[in-house]
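pasting for the record
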Amino acid sequence: MAYGIVPLEGEKTLLIARKSPIVIWKQIVIAAVLVVMASVSLFFGANEYLYLLSIALFLILAVYVFVLFRVWFYDIYVVTNMRVILSEQKGLFHHESSEIDARDIVEVKSVRKGIWATILRHGSVVIITHQAKETWLTPVLDPDYVAQSIRVLGSATQRHEQ
């Protein structure tokens, strides 16, 4: 199963959904600015200080991209035949995990707002439980498919209990 998630007995993974890469567009712009700054200082570097500055910028960029990718990569939603698991990487050393039992799911909605969400096929999935608690999985690629997978999970569990 996914990072840090221990499967229960008889549990099977149905779907692993990641956050849409669109959530990191601002960080990608920052990384691109760093690349341009480092390249310009390297190209026009007339002395060793500018060379050192460009090397430092490239090192900072490498660390920044590593942290950005790691946080995005380990921030996942897992749908199994028994539960929905939210495994969220909040930072390099901060990880949170929670789960929703399939028997507690009352309603599942998919939400897409705006032209870009429609064109790029990303949006949110809202899971409503018996306690009227809303859990948002946001933003995910193809929220309709993710919501349908969770609906099938909830209805299969309810049929199995009857």
